[in-house]
Amino acid sequence: MAPESTNKNKDYNMEDFIELSAYEVKDLSCPRCGERAETINHLFRECPITVEVWSTLLLQNVLIDVNRDFEQWLTRVFEQLIPHNCRIFSCALWAIWEDRNLRIHNKKFSIGKKIGNFIINYIAELDGLENRKLVKIKEKMNWRRPSREFVKINFDRAFDGQNNFSASGIVARNDEGLIILSCSETHKEFASAFATEAIAFRKAVQMGMENTCPIVIIEGDSLAIIKKCNNKDQDKSMIGAYISDIQQMVNRSKHFVFKHIPRNANALAHKIAIEILKRKVEDYLEKKVLEYAKNQKLLEWVHEPD
Ligand SMILES: [Zn+2]
């Protein structure tokens, strides 16, 4: 159905919106500015209120191609904008159409800046919701047992900067989630938390070398260390010597996989390191963890996927 040219106050629905793109309605003046006939081009590209919306959104560039027909214009804009701006652009098309209908139905008037700010806030709210969702997904990531015939070793460290004292916590588990070995070490006079992280990692690789399993997964929550060890080039940083030790061990025989995981998935190794920092007593235990880490072990056990 084509919009009736004589009825200025006619109500429009979505079908009319589609019709507007097919029919150039030349004798119906714009309900927003009243200056020009309301065509699809006027509504989304020419109307002064719309121009102000694009300018508030810092998307004035979408108005450069004014001579293209509406469909070509949309295609071109979507091709040229980065994904985040495509999102703002789509939201703006909807908001402009909504504003137009509110004027007709409810006699509600908004200036372009207000519509633009509404869009900015709306997108910010959506982004916030998505970020919260991502954080929730991340929070849910607990330790997972390895596949059959793999062994998984988690490592972490705790660092007491004031006393230059640090501790490593390392725990190896099999495909049933059972602890094969747990180990803790203390270190004095290391310059940085970063170095102690590298030492804990090296110890984890040593434990992996001693294990009979052909494939060893080493997991830690330090992204920088994991990245360095996955990189085959020579590391020239202050912890280069440790990284070089690790790379040499790894090149020998076994297949090692180095994985970065969130802190939640590394909780048992973290707990061991923190406790050893307090107690300053090293341990090397087969098939169990120390008393203090038992609760953490149980927690991880409960959260494991089937
Ligand atoms: Zn207008």
UniProtKB/TrEMBL annotation:
Highest taxon of source: Eukaryota
Q: Which UniProt keywords apply?
A: Nucleotidyltransferase, RNA-directed DNA polymerase, Transferase
- Domain RNase H type-1 as annotated: residue spans: 154-273
Cross-referenced InterPro entries: RNase_H-like_dom_plant, RNase_H-like_EbsB-rel, RNaseH-like_sf, RNaseH_domain, RNaseH_sf
Keyword Nucleotidyltransferase (UniProt): yes
- Can you name one GO molecular function term for this protein? RNA-DNA hybrid ribonuclease activity
UniProt entry tagged with the keyword Transferase: yes
Write down the Pfam families for this protein, in alphabetical order.
Answer: RVT_3
Matches recorded under PANTHER family:
BNAC02G40300D PROTEIN (PTHR47074), RNASE H TYPE-1 DOMAIN-CONTAINING PROTEIN (PTHR47074:SF61)
Q: What is this protein called?
A: Reverse transcriptase
Gene source species: Gossypium australe
